[in-house]
């Protein structure tokens, strides 16, 4: 966003495949929800469908259905809450979980325009919207960046990740937008505005920020970079005494 304001909607765009963007969106959403805010996470990573791994139960309709066969359904129909013990907060996810045929239709230009409308609807209903966005190479990624108030590049703390940041910045500029910040994962990068540390926890163990002080502090810095938010954390020991069970689909 050119005026520098944080806004409501952030597209977290992976600079490379496997950058850890999905996990970062879950950690960021959980931290903000634990601070009493309402957060929606929308899944533009149609190919990997990684957000669905953090959710249990039947995921129907998923986001691709809301952009194609179920386009008249309200956004709320596709939202699945992560069971956080957060006072007043909510973390609602709209994952992609679909067969290839529907994924292909959800990548069309018409579906991308509907995706922008879904993002706008989420912005009206939630305090924050985070879009898990793959590298800008498909219509839904372009739609996410176009609809976002801020575009944040997510890159692993490697030489490959650093080089990918520059390539992605150029691609974002090619579509008439700009990258507002860079977040490094699994360590730090000289070009990063914030960084998420390496962790030995399994990917689907996220969110770990609710019970690991180091991760909580790092994700709070990400929240500040992405939304100018200042979520409270407790003595470096995490935000909550307990969280709900997370069962991979």
List keywords for this structure.
P-loop_NTPase, 249 residues, ParA family protein, 7 helices, Rossmann fold, DNA_Partitioning_ATPase, single chain, alpha/beta
Overview of this structure, please?
The protein has 249 residues and is an alpha/beta fold. It has one domain: P-loop containing nucleotide triphosphate hydrolases (Rossmann fold), CATH 3.40.50.300. Helix content is 33%, strand content 16%. The protein is built from seven helices and eight strands, in the order E-H-E-H-E-E-H-H-E-H-E-H-E-E-H. Strands 3-4-2-5-1-6-7-8 form an eight-stranded mixed beta sheet, sandwiched between helices. Helix 6 (159-174) links the parallel strand 6 (150-156) and strand 7. Helix 1 crosses helix 7 (213-227) and helix 4 runs parallel beside helix 5 (139-147). The chain is globular, with a radius of gyration of 16 Å. It starts with 8 loop residues before the first strand and ends in a 22-residue tail after the last helix. Mean pLDDT is 89; it is low at 240-249. InterPro entries: DNA_Partitioning_ATPase, P-loop_NTPase. This is ParA family protein. It comes from Haloplanus rallus.
**What proportion of the residues form beta strands (DSSP E)?**
15-25%
The CATH architecture is 3-Layer(aba) Sandwich
* Separation, N- and C-terminal Cα atoms: 35 Å
What is the name of the CATH superfamily?
P-loop containing nucleotide triphosphate hydrolases
Q: Any idea of the CATH class? A: Alpha Beta
Mean pLDDT over the residues: 89
Task: Summarize the biggest pleated sheet.
Answer: 8 strands, mixed
CATH fold group: Rossmann fold
What is the C-alpha radius of gyration, as a whole number of Å? 16 Å
Number of beta-strand segments:
8
